[in-house]
TrEMBL record:
GO terms for molecular function: ATP binding. This is Energy-coupling factor ABC transporter ATP-binding protein. The lineage of its organism: Bacteria, Bacillati, Actinomycetota, Actinomycetes, Micrococcales. Gene3D superfamilies: P-loop containing nucleotide triphosphate hydrolases. Keywords: ATP-binding, Nucleotide-binding, Transport. The keyword Glycoprotein does not apply. The keyword Transport applies. Residues 6-229 form the ABC transporter domain. It comes from Glutamicibacter bergerei. It holds the Pfam family ABC_tran. PANTHER family: ENERGY-COUPLING FACTOR TRANSPORTER ATP-BINDING PROTEIN ECFA1, HEAVY METAL TRANSPORTER. SMART domains: AAA. Belongs to the ABC transporter superfamily.
Length: 229
């Protein structure tokens, strides 16, 4: 799968005149990218820039050459986002319908939707949840369903905002294996540092800048040292 390059050029994001990200220039080409850093450092904001959920106050973000401030709709089809709180993401009362929802929007037939939903649920080992009512699921089950809904759309990049917070050990390990298998690019914001061991690149965000950018072990070491002070 060919992965679209993501480019940030001199990006600043301010909320009510307070800068949250400052002058970030970055090119992302890797398949497995982690984002770590302290609470409030700007990780979620950085990740939301990548699918036009946040538009830079100044500077530009391009995904496969398309500017997020001008091509939001197209970019959102290619960059999926799994939110930290899955309840914000689950729309339909029944699990299978929720996963099929986005597929209808992109024009898949009923038969195609059915196949894609079954396939995705089986891949994630949650086929048994297909006919459940979404609001009766546990937090971890909801997180897996939210992931399935995004995976079913087959975007080339998937951004995960703290994906393992509600998962038990078995589901966390499953999730880690799923990420390793994904043909797509995964960009994962997490405080679960072990999740990033085999990643290609890890960014450390501190007070709105990229404080470190490199291999997982070095980035984690940098972040640990910073956290000790
Ligand atoms: N829509 C918004 N309006 C105002 N302030 C915001 C908004 N979104 C984020 N912020 C602020 O921007 C800063 C960075 O937030 P962000 O969610 O990006 O941090 P984070 O690194 O993901 O933190 P955490 O690890 O706690 O989830 C915080 O101070 C937050 O309060």
């Amino acid at each position: 799968m060919e992965l679209p390059e993501i480019q940030l050029e001199q990006v600043t994001v301010s909320f009510e005149d307070r800068p949250v990200l400052t002058d970030i220039t970055l090119t992302l080409n890797e398949r497995r990218i982690g984002i770590i850093g302290a609470n409030g450092a700007g990780k979620s904001t950085l990740s939301r820039l990548l699918n036009a959920l946040v538009i830079p106050t100044t500077g530009t973000v391009r995904v496969g050459g398309l500017d997020t401030s001008k091509n939001a709709k197209q970019i959102r089809r290619d960059v999926g986002f799994v939110f930290q709180n899955p309840a914000n993401q689950i729309i339909m009362p029944l699990v299978a319908d929720d996963i099929a929802f986005g597929l209808k929007n992109i024009g898949l037939s009923k038969a195609e939707r059915k196949v894609r939903v079954t396939q995705t649920l089986e891949e994630l080992n949650i086929a048994h949840l297909a006919d459940r009512e979404s609001h009766t699921l546990s937090g971890g089950e909801q997180q897996m369903v939210a992931l399935a809904a995004v995976m079913a759309m087959q975007p080339r990049t998937i951004v995960f905002d703290e994906p393992t917070t509600m998962l038990d050990l078995r589901n966390r390990l499953r999730f880690q294996r799923e990420i390793a298998k994904l043909p797509q690019r995964a960009i994962v914001i997490t405080h679960d540092l072990e999740l990033l061991e085999d990643f290609d690149r890890v960014l450390v965000v501190t007070d709105g800048i990229i404080d470190f950018d490199g291999q997982p072990a070095d980035a984690i070491d940098h972040y640990r040292q910073w956290s000790l002070v």
